[in-house]
Amino acid sequence: MTTNTVPAAQVERHDCPKCEAPAGSPCRTAKGKVAASYHTGRFALVPALKAELTVKTPADRHPGKPWKRGAAVSQAPAPTPGAAIRIGYARCSTVGQELQSQLDALARAECTRVFSEKISTRVKERPELDKALTLAREIRTAAPGQPVILTVVEMKRLARNAAELMSLSARLQSEGVQLELLSGPLQGVYDPHGAGAIVFAVLAVTAEVEREGIREKTLEGLDTADSNGSHGGRPTVMDDDKLAVARARQVKGESVTSIAKALGVSRATLYRHLGG
Q1: Which of 125-129, 140-144, 188-192, 209-213 has the highest mean pLDDT?
Q2: By its UniProt entry, which InterPro entries does this protein fall under (predicted)?
Q3: Domain boundary assignment for the chain
Q4: Could you tell me which residues come within 8 angstroms of residue 260 by beta carbon, excluding any fewer than 6 positions away?
Q5: Does residue 209 register a pLDDT over 70?
Q6: pLDDT score, position 220
């Protein structure tokens, strides 16, 4: 066996928990062809390859061609759980914000794989977070005893509100995935079972209380400003001086279009003020 097929041989000593390819055979796709890469859950069973999270199918297995069962081999014994596999997730809300500081922090935390995205907090679907959680589930399914940790820099990168946080907590709990926070008052690793589940609940309540507090302060600020004669929104483009000039020019018979252009305002704005 050539050197470049050694990783493939190690992987193929295990059955694939995803495509059900037997030991001795490459992985296969849903269309019945040889997969280009071995499924993560399969090679995660090989201690030497756990840090890779991607192993290409060698050319002699004919990736992309119709799948055929390979020669039977002796299966490897069940692996002994090793160090936890960390899967990182980074997110920022707008194009103007930067992700690099989060990516650097996740690299220092020795995350094996990092998923990142720039997406507004108003968008409910987060494709890269879903990919991170799917990968964690695949690893846990293939090796139930293998610790898997979802690592983020701070809690707000994961959820917008208490409901989302509780939903995420339930998903992590059902799949046995731990959560790690790299910063903040609750920095550390939390198991979603036992005491960890209580932490998730506290985080959810805290997030909801904080959101309501911000909303209440905003409304109080607007109310105070309104009572002081200050109204929210952009300042008007028309002041008393401009309005006086506009009315004087209108009396002389000048068109609204000409007046608006001279004053640097829109015709709609000028009509609105002259009509008042």
Answers
A1: 125-129
A2: Homeodomain-like_sf, Phage_Znf_bind_put, Resolv_N, Resolvase-like_N_sf, Resolvase_HTH_dom, SSR_resolvase
A3: 1-68, 85-211, 240-275
A4: 266, 267, 269, 270
A5: no
A6: 64
- Phi/psi class of residue 237: alpha, beta or left (left: φ > 0; alpha: ψ in -120 to 50)? alpha
| 3-22: average pLDDT | 84
- What pLDDT shows up at residue 210? 57
The answer for residues whose C-beta is within 8 angstroms of residue 251's C-beta and 6 or more apart is: none
Per-residue tokens: 125: 């679907």
Residue 188: predicted pLDDT: 86
> The tokens of 159 are what?
């959820």
Instruction: Give the fold, CATH level 3, of 85-211.
Output: Rossmann fold (3.40.50)
Contact between 214 and 175 under an 8 Å Cβ cutoff? The reply is no
Stated pTM of the model: 0.61
**Pair 117, 94: CB distance under 8 Å:** no
Please report the beta strands in the chain, taking only residues with DSSP state E, as ranges in sequence order: 85-92, 113-118, 148-152, 178-181, 188-190
CB atoms within 10 A of CB 206: 15
How high is the mean pLDDT of the chain?
Answer: 81
Residue 67 parent element (H or E): none
